[in-house]
Amino acid sequence: MNKIFNKSLTYNIDLFKKEFKDDDSIVYRLFQNEGSKKKFCLIYVKSMVNDEVMSDNIFKPIMSADIKRHENSTEFMDYVVNKIVSINEVEKSSDFTTLVENLYIGKSILFIDGFAKGAILNTLDWSSRSINEPISETIIKGPREGFNEVIYTNISLIRRRIVSQHLKVKFREIGNITKTKVCICYIEEIAKDEIVKEVERRLDKIDIDGILDTGYIEEFITDEPISLFKTLFSTEKPDTVCGKLLEGRVAIICNGSPSVITTPFVFIEYFQVDEDYYQQYYFATFNRMLRYLAFFLTTSVPAIYIALTNYHQELIPTPLILSIFEARQGIPFPSFLEAFIMIIVFELIRESGIRISKYSGSAISIVGALVVGEAAVQARLVSQPMIIVIGITGIANFLLPKMANSTIFIRIIFLFLASILGLYGYIFGVIFLSLHLFSIRSFGIPYMLNVDSMEDAINMKDAYIRAPWWYMDMRGKLISKKRNRKKNIAKN
Amino acid sequence: MRKKICFVAVYFITCILLVGCWDYREIDEVEIVLGLGVDSHITPSEEVDKLSETQFLVTYEIVGIESEQGQLKSRVLKDEGDTLYRAIRKIIEKNGKQVYLAHTKILIISEELAREGITEILDYTMRDAEYRPDVHVLITDNCDAGEMFKDDATDVASMRLNDTLKNQNKIGTFESSTVWNIIDKMTKKGFEPAIPLIRMDKEHVDGNLIHIVGGTAVFKASKMVGKLSEDETLYYLFIDNEIKNQPLSIEYYFEDQLGHISLEILSNETKVTPVVNGESLGVNIAVDCKVAINELSHQIDILDEKDRSDIEMNAEKDIEEGITELITHVQKDYNSDIFGFGDLIKRQKNKTWKKVEKDWDNIFQTLKITTDINVQIERSALSSHSIEIDKY
Question: Where are the membrane-spanning stretches (chain A) (predicted)?
């Protein structure tokens, strides 16, 4: 039942007090003008408001103003709001719910004795994290700004880079309790309408209590919820998001989360890092090749090692098989188990390294290197080749941080297949993986776009290699509406 | 969803049933064999009728690493059986582990056995899944195959032999042959296998007992019929067009003084063409050899046209004599077409071959050989002059 205000100030305040029973964070500040008897009350939530703004722009002017002439006029509230307080955003409302909502986001509500409505004053002061370099995506060359948790800051970071009226930002609220602000961001002239509409449709369908991070949204709107691979890209870097927007992708920003989703997301984007575009193209191409190699290494090395040593010993060159033979002497576990244990141990070390505080981090690496590396080999629990195999796998995994979660599972599945069927099993695994990757889509875009076909050769310039910018003059065929990068869209 | 799971299940079951490879074997559960020696072995038995039954005495060289120094060490094990396969499996009695033969590099067969025939051994190595067909085969020169792995060297004999055989194009005293190419030659009409010989010797330099690969065993079908010396083998290589970078040394008279010239063969091309002239059948061997002067024992002006062509002529004469003598020797004494002349005629003059095919054994012996040798000195290595010795 909605509560209705009347002209009595105490009655109005009591309405709030009843609503916020047992909530001590709400301040009811009663005050008076020095020349008049008129009573005012400012309601706000402690520590969500800017104290300086409050005293300088609300309390001081109202207390000291000469208001006697207008005191009894019916327009008095407008007079106060428009001529006395100096606040950039003012709104009046007699709706209780609206007032409460605004109160909670950090605005303050001014009641004046004799008026059955409240004025919403913008006294917002959200202390937010400053704009830092994101820890998860460090780069050597390129902008170091990262998004923070405030949606407006994040949008401003994008707006500063794309100065165009074509950049559209559409807000909505998701989360029945949290009422989280979420916005869709795209460049109208480049992004395809169908994709934008699809994103909006999927966002509107979300029905949940609360959204605390874009991760929630990701899971709701993804195409392949059970796939090991993501169909959405998430980043904390505004420059990366701008790059994606310029390619015709749609960004989803969520209040309270520093990571921003962009979609559609295709497989090769795992291998494209924003730094590729800030470096010389041949160097960037080399690095990209390394990433492709790392994908192969991190998923396949343990499986191939197990397959070769257990099923196809004749495929290993003689000197190599001799040293593996020597190293395997006296190891109690079958090599499949050995590999599996080592993968789990590696993941344990990695996960603990993330969860633990920075200061004990070095202890982890000492334990990892000495206990697992040295001592296990010395004690003949694990063979040296296995340490090397797992080491290569782990290091290669760090080249693809965005894919890390998927590769762990693929690695274990491949390993399992290889241990029961040898190289055949591994090949079956690869076939399965390819079938899966080629069958899924992200917002209507084939996931393996540009990997499989040379048909649209323009796109290949940014797939396996990073072609020089002057040569990469067209946008992707399926993703963007206007293809030519060089032509100014504003002039069309 | 259920459909998908069913599909995956069916896929996997099919895979598991159809995949032939179920040979799971931990690497440390096998013994890696690098070399195999086969001798014929007569069991000392009182029963007279069993004496004639041939048995195989198999010697293996098994590697394991001395981990402290990290140096390869090998063990030698022996076993016997009435078939090769039985002998190989019997090793479990002694060793506990099964032997793993896929990395076998060397197969040494004793001369005694080779003279009786090697079909059985080759058939086994070809049929067995573990062997690779590129195992090098060697025939012992009048000694036991099992003794070959017991030399004084510290490294693994099979590995060293493997290296030796791989470097045949640098020495010219043997031609390495593998299981597949022996079988290839054995099954072809007009082609007989030739396998390098190996023997154990006290080394001249430091008295160590060491094996030496050199010379060639000549086969007729699957039986060994004779040997070629190391010198003869070089000319065999010439005919077989296997000359790559072997040294060629010739004798030369420097103003009535006998001296040596060592030539390095830079490239060589031998073309063997069958010549049909009416009823007579012949083979022309054209050698086009480019050499560099490597050593001179006497002072000679190699920039001088006449002296150079003199050397060339001498070399040509040497090669020609070598080739002719070798072919005559093989024709007369062994009657084994190790040069593959018959196969050549079959490929190039098929009509003639059909006529002579049945009688090839006799015709080979009377085959006329003409040679056309051309040696050309191209370079003189790093110096254009000989060392000038002061004379008083």
Answer: 292-311, 331-349, 356-376, 382-400, 412-438
